[in-house]
Design goal:
Elements lengths: L2 H15 L1 H25 L27 H8 L10 E5 L5 H7 L5 E6 L2 H14 L8 E5 L11 E6 L5 H17 L3 E7 L2 H9 L8 E8 L15 E8 L2
Helix pairs in contact: 1-2
Length: 246
């Protein structure tokens, strides 16, 4: 969320709930900013901020603006992933400026790949990766500029990360390609999805990824975020799905 959008959102909260609610939100907001700054300085990178599609030259109706996943939310979610990381490939769809690629590379994955539509974002992501690489455990880290629907999932890929990088038919086609890979090379896989509004519908529909493959689902709330599950059960949460096509 950009500064103007954030100010409008806070003004709306102030009108609806009064100043007391803003005072309750301030410690959470401050804590999030402190954590973001800590990791950005630790890795020596710049991945903060929102970037709208038009500013990036993207006019695809399924595309979503760039906004990075929260650091602590990602690391908390990964604790629920039971994959054997040294033999696993991690895929980040909509890798943007490379934040999650960098975070994943600090874990002992065999390989980490970011898939991003916009080359300018990948150019900046590569600079961030170069700055952070001394802290990587994984040594095979790359970002690829391509439309996710055209990218063929490799047989060794077993952990897939999404933060609503695209919607509707693009999401459907990408998940279908993931399912194709799991069908042709049966294996256990983990989908780590941040705020999976449309993904949850796809999984429930039992069309692309059969219910018989869906073995377990857990979720974690972003640290320092409000619990909005009563009004938005998927918002500000990571959902982790264990899939097994064997």
């Amino acid at each position: 969320m950009g500064i103007a959008s954030r100010l409008k959102a806070e003004a709306a909260v102030l009108r609806e709930h009064g100043p007391a609610d803003l005072l309750l939100r301030l410690p959470r907001y401050t804590a999030r900013r402190v954590v973001e700054s800590y990791y950005e300085r630790r890795f020596g990178i710049d991945t903060r901020g929102d970037l709208m599609q038009n500013a990036l030259g993207v006019h695809d109706p399924d595309a979503v603006h760039y906004a990075p996943s929260p650091y602590l939310g990602f690391f908390k979610a990964m604790k629920l992933v039971g994959a054997d990381l040294p033999s696993s490939t991690f895929i980040d769809y909509g890798s943007g400026l490379g934040r999650i690629v960098i975070c994943a590379a600090t874990l002992p994955f065999q390989r980490v790949i970011g898939i991003e539509l916009v080359e300018e974002l990948n150019r900046r992501a590569r600079l961030n990766i170069a700055r952070a690489c001394r802290q990587f455990i994984c040594k095979d880290v790359s970002v690829i500029t391509t439309n996710a629907t055209r990218w063929r999932v490799p047989p060794g890929a077993s952990v897939f990360h999404f933060y609503n990088p695209f919607l509707s038919e693009t999401l459907r086609a990408t998940v279908a390609e993931l399912a194709r890979s799991l069908r042709e090379s049966p294996r256990e896989a983990w989908i780590v999805f941040n705020s999976p509004w449309q993904m949850s519908t796809l999984l429930t529909a039992d069309e692309i990824i059969p219910q018989s493959w869906q073995k377990w689902c857990g979720d974690v709330r972003w640290p320092f975020s409000r619990d909005i599950s009563k009004t938005d059960p998927h918002g500000s949460r990571y959902f982790i799905y264990r899939i097994d096509s064997r």
